[in-house]
Amino acid sequence: MATLPQQTTGQTGNAHTTSILFIGRKPLKVYAGVARSILSQEGEVCIVARGELISRAILIGLWMGGPISFKAKLEKLAGQDGRERDVPSIEVFVSWKEPPAPVANVVAQTYGSFTIQNP
Fold first, then answer.
1. 26 in Cβ contact with 18 (< 8 Å)
2. What structural domains does the chain harbor?
3. Cα-Cα-Cα-Cα dihedral of 7, 8, 12, 17, to 10°?
4. pLDDT for 77-97, tens place per residue?
5. Over the stretch 18-59, which tens digit does the pLDDT of each residue have?
């Protein structure tokens, strides 16, 4: 797993440095924790994935609770047989002005009060 700073234009449209989180095959909670950490420190993260991992990047972006935007594109990469292939990729931009409310507060505001029972 790698996070890299990159000069990019995020949701605000201004050029600035944003940390990039590359999505792979580790458990989702690992990437969610890293994304949350970056967001709490920097306020914005770019989550990048290719191919079949695109859905994971979108899911992690949605889990973060802030406004998201994305940029999808086709990249030309060399396959194992040496031929050039078009591979879909996505960049999901997530930003926080402040961390979102805990999930319990959001659920209570949406569905009314509830009780959590310990097993």
1. no
2. 3-111 (3.30.110.20)
3. -30
4. 998 898 999 999 999 999 987
5. 899 999 999 999 999 999 999 988 999 999 999 999 999 999
